[in-house]
Structure formats: structure tokens, C-alpha cells
Amino acid sequence: MMVAGEASGDMYGARLVSALRNLAPGIRFFGIGGPKMEEAEVRILYRVSELAVVGMTEVLPKMRFIHKALNELKDALKDNPPDLVILIDYPGFNLHLAKKAHDLGIPVLYYIPPQVWAWRERRVKKIAKRVDRIAVILPFEKEFYAGYGIKVEYVGHPLLDGLEERKGNERVRGHLGFGGRRFPVVGLLPGSRNEEIARHMPPMVGAAKIIARTYPDLRCMLPLAPTVSEETVKPYLKDVNFDVTLCSADTKEVLGDCDLALIASGTATLEGAITGTPMVILYKVSFLTFVITKLLAKVTHIGLVNLVAGGEIVPELIQGDATDSRLAEEGLRILEDEAMREDMRASLRMVRDQLGQGGASERAAAIAGEMMGLGIEGE
């Protein structure tokens, strides 16, 4: 059984499925995921898009449906026990499922556990009781979890799996020419969940409009997560005065073609680090969720690139600061200051270096295979 609760988890889950099938071609999977896991021939009981939520208060409208999905998976554990349960983030759901699996004696691997080192650290005690092994993808997480006596391995970040090294310049395209003039290409990455789209698209589009006053030939690129349709974002683009390209290409490919990215805090910020793309991070949640999170947070930054770097290497605009004017201000500073851009790229390269060298999915698969008693050849 494999459970992923949002778009990036769906991607990581699909890659892990592929790596596990290399060990044991006959292995079968079922659980919760999205289009990537479905393409990998995982039998999907519930879709990521049906269950994904942001924040504490935002989960309330979906509670009944989420509870129904949880109970169905618990019943599946009892009626047709799998050889292994693999959990990918999504802690509010997965920690309940882990308890049921543990009570039934089914081994549990938490691949990409929740960021309890950032907030709600009390959850780590539940993890220690309910999870057999953990595979972490950020370098500082191993020491944290090991400190609680949990069997943990650092496998590297799966974003680097299969990443083709760029030839020549790190920038795929650099600045494009148009009528003898230079213009920037700005990536807009609002997130993969409906609540994120609703909160982040207005300030992102507003910021792009302001940037277009300085750069009339501005081009924007908006890569769509598999869980987001064009119809979801198009209403926010009705009156824009610049070109916007909607695409379903790999996010790293899109970011490699951008001079600047406005990115909702999350996995995409690390993809920006991998491509060396200067960025501004933003994030907005409901007021109540923000207040509660602020009280519980144990870190001073929320952007993964800043957390891995150990300090603010890219600007973060959170909640009330995430306005179109502030986003445009920070974005224009980056676009107009070449030295600042180069310093930021150098810092992002250091973050990329800390994420490992690829092969995370294979290392996680080896752990899963060992837990299921598979031999080296998957026999």
C-alpha cells in the first residue's frame, strides 16, 4: 500500500514504484495517489486531487470525505494485508494509517516524513511508535530523527533522479531577443492545490503586471501541476497585458528557461535551486492557520531552499507581505541587479550540492525491498 497526499508526493511515489519494480517486476501496488502513480500502474482508490488540502481550518470542509478514505484503507489493511505500507508525507492522514498498520503487525516505511523539525515536533513521538523505518530526503533530517531513536536513512532528493546535466551554460536560454530589446521571462508557480491557486494567483499576476510596466515585452510561463487544470488558472489571466504560456512540461525545464520565478513555498523552490533560477518565495493561508502555525513554528524561514541553506538566500513574502507590490518590488530588484542574481545563483548551487547526486528512488526502493524480504535480485 502506498499513500501520497499531494502532487509532489505523487511524482515521488511513481518513481519509487518504478525502482521497486526493477527489484521485483511482479510487485503490485494500491492506495492513494495521482496521475503519475496511476501511470505507474498503481491501483488508485482515492485521488490526490480529492484529498489535498492546505492548512488547519481549510481541511474542515473535506473532513467527512477524508475520514471515509481513511476508514476504507484501514479496512484494506485488515482484510487484505499488504507486505509493506509506504507513506509519503501527508501526516494528518498517514500517521493514523501507520497506527493501524502497526497494530496489525504490517511493516511501515515513511518515505519523506513530515517536517516535524519545523513545527509540531510532538508528532515525532508518534512516528517513533508507529513507523519501522524512515527514508529522508533533506540532509539535516537524518540527525534529527536519529535523535529520537528512529531507524532512519538519508537517501538524497528524488528531484535529482534522472536529471540530465545541462550542456554549456547553466541557463538553457538566457535572455531572449525581441526587436533588438531584452526582456525577462518570469515563471509563475502558485502551487498544486486549489486553495494555493486561489490565494497565490492574484498577487502573482498583479506583480507581473507591475513588472510589465518596466519590461513591456515581459513573457510569463506557468507550468501546471498534474493536479491543476487550465480552467482553474485561466480566470486569473483574463485581463493581463503580457504573454502567458500555460504548459505541462517538467517544472525544472520551465524554470531553466526563466530569469526569475515567483514561487509558492514548497517542492518547486528546490527545483528552482536545481536549475539555479533566481526566485521570490511567497505563501498565504487562512488567518487562523497562519496564527496557529506562527505560534507552533520552530524555524525562522519556510522556504525549503532557505532551510537547506541555513539562512535567507532568497526573499520570502509570507501572508500579509505577499502582495503584488512587494512581489514586484523584490522581483524587479533581482532582474535589475546582475550582481544580486549571480550571488543568488551561487547560493542556489550550494543548496543543489547538498541535495545529493541522484538515485534517491533506488536507495529508497532498496530499503523497501529489504523490509519485504526481497533479495538483491528481487527474488
Summarize the structure.
The chain is of the alpha/beta class and 379 residues long.
What can you see in these coordinates?
α1 (7-23) packs across α16 and α5 (91-103) runs parallel beside α6. The protein has 379 residues and is an alpha/beta fold. The chain has 16 helices and 15 strands. 46% of the residues are buried. The radius of gyration is 21 Å and the shape is globular. α2 links the parallel β2 and β3 (43-47). The strands form 3 sheets. A 7-stranded parallel sheet has the order 3-2-1-4-5-6-7, sandwiched between helices. The chain folds into 2 domains: 2-158 and 358-371, Rossmann fold, CATH 3.40.50; 176-354, Rossmann fold, CATH 3.40.50.2000.
SSE layout and pairing:
Elements: E1 2-4, H1 7-23, E2 30-33, H2 35-39, E3 43-47, H3 48-51, H4 63-79, E4 85-88, H5 91-103, E5 108-111, H6 123-130, E6 133-136, H7 141-146, E7 152-154, E8 176-178, E9 181-183, E10 185-189, H8 194-214, E11 219-223, H9 230-233, E12 243-247, H10 251-256, E13 260-264, H11 267-275, E14 279-283, H12 287-296, H13 304-309, E15 316-318, H14 324-336, H15 338-354, H16 360-371
Parallel strand pairs: 1-2, 1-4, 2-3, 4-5, 5-6, 6-7, 10-11, 10-13, 11-12, 13-14, 14-15
Antiparallel strand pairs: 8-9
